[in-house]
Automatic annotation (TrEMBL):
CDD domains: MFS_NepI_like. The keyword Membrane applies. Pfam families: MFS_1 (PF07690). GO terms for cellular component: plasma membrane. The chain crosses the membrane at residues 12-38, 58-80, 87-107, 113-135, 147-168, 174-197, 218-240, 252-273, 280-303, 309-331, 343-362, 368-389. InterPro entries: MFS (IPR011701), MFS_dom (IPR020846), MFS_Efflux_Transporters (IPR050189), MFS_trans_sf (IPR036259). Keywords: Cell membrane, Membrane, Transmembrane, Transmembrane helix. This is Predicted arabinose efflux permease, MFS family. GO terms for molecular function: transmembrane transporter activity. It comes from Thermomonospora echinospora. The keyword rRNA-binding does not apply.
Length: 397
């Protein structure tokens, strides 16, 4: 339904007919893959980063907070900017490439945090724009398939990008892994610049449109539920490596493998729970925070051992893998007349919640314990579940 609305746009903005359209779609897929891998890679390398830069796990976790804050601010600003979308998308990847290379050479935690702030500029804008580009690159009948290809970069980053980067970092160093990402972003930037057609802005969107959208109770409920579950996830998942090593007793060399298990489960959750949305929209939405809560609360109680940790991480992956699709679908149901603004608000909600979640988790890890952050995440996920449940439509009489 969302794609059908997007497809109403004029076909005068389409790229030339033929292979060029699908080459551009593939390039955007590579862009989302590079973007999400860059944002999430510190999760798998947090321990090494902190040890190398003489910083605690909590302070090092600020590399996630820094990106989230700037990413949350950049999404609505870049969406309202009426520049050619090719310029914005390629510019965002250029900024990300530089940020990754600076991070790889960072002599201390301050420079690393500055590099991550720079990286955050690219996250919100690229994500908010790339997701809607399919309608401008392929005919209406092909929009669903093209959109799926572009967004599959997010799933592949979880399944391949972050685990592969973690394994590379374990085999060499976190600096090498981060530098390789910088080179990858430069290569994708070159591809995007070559294959994307001119994409002038076609919609007029003002910052004043966002408060008007927030005035709708259902939209506030959606963003509130999203914020709670994303904060829950990143307060705990940012520190998943020390959790696996110190609480579950997983060997350091197996952490990358377990993150791969998490990534595969996340893809499964994305597709499996997403398939329920047309028939059970609120049931599918409830399932996401419910599974996440069950996993994080079970780890300190019954997560000792590699096998149990892998199982609970898989449950966690299914739950969180469903979060983007169920909440994106929810806001589109509640704001079908403002899809671009709604998408930007979801991106901002994600980024701000990532920042706050990793910051809050860091304070608890340093001030209390690793276990405490899992209890906090469980409570927040349950609160998200309760909010989604209370917002469900009343049954028809």
């Amino acid at each position: 339904m969302i794609v059908d609305r997007l497809a109403i746009m004029t076909e005068t903005t389409l790229a030339p007919v033929g292979v060029a359209r699908w080459t551009a779609v593939a390039a955007l897929f590579l862009g989302t893959f590079s973007l999400v891998t860059s944002e999430m890679l510190p999760v798998g390398l947090l321990t090494e980063m902190g040890a190398d830069l003489n910083a605690s796990d909590g302070v090092t976790g600020l590399v996630m907070t820094a990106c989230g804050v700037v990413g949350g601010l950049s999404a609505p600003l870049l969406v309202t900017w009426r520049a050619d979308r090719r310029l914005v998308l390629t510019g965002a990847l250029g900024v990300l490439a530089v940020a990754n290379l600076v991070a790889a050479l960072a002599p201390n935690i301050v420079v690393l945090l500055a590099a991550r702030l720079l990286a955050g500029l690219s996250f919100g804008g690229f994500w908010a724009l790339a997701a809607g580009m399919a309608v401008r690159l392929v005919p209406a009948a092909s929009v669903p398939r093209a959109t799926a290809i572009i967004l599959s970069g997010v799933s592949l980053a979880s399944v391949v990008g972050v685990p592969a980067g973690t394994l590379l970092g374990d085999a060499t160093s976190w600096r090498v892994a981060t530098g390789v990402l910088g080179v990858l972003c430069m290569a994708v930037l070159a591809v995007l610049a070559f294959v994307l057609p001119p994409l002038p802005a076609t919609q007029t969107l003002r910052l004043g449109d966002f408060p008007a959208l927030l005035a709708r109770p259902a939209v506030r409920a959606c963003l509130g539920g999203l914020a709670l579950v994303v904060v829950a996830h990143f307060a705990s998942f940012t520190y998943v490596r020390p959790v696996l090593e110190d609480i579950s007793g997983v060997d350091a060399g197996l952490v990358g493998t377990l993150l791969l298990v998490y990534g595969v489960a996340g893809v499964a959750g994305n597709f499996a729970v997403g398939a329920l949305i047309p028939r059970l929209p609120y049931g599918a939405t409830i399932l996401a925070p419910a599974l996440l809560a069950a996993a994080v609360l079970a780890i300190p109680l019954a997560g000792a051992g590699t096998g149990r940790a892998a199982l609970l991480l898989a449950v966690w992956g299914v739950g969180y893998g469903a979060v983007p699709v169920v909440f994106q679908s929810w806001i589109m149901r509640e704001a079908p007349d403002a899809t671009e603004a709604g998408s930007a608000m979801v991106v901002t909600g994600f980024q701000v919640s990532i920042a706050f979640g990793s910051l809050l988790g860091g304070r608890m890890v340093d001030g209390i314990s690793l276990t405490s952050v899992l209890w906090l995440a469980g409570v927040l996920a349950v609160a998200s579940l309760a909010l989604v449940w209370s917002s469900r439509p009343a049954p028809a009489r």
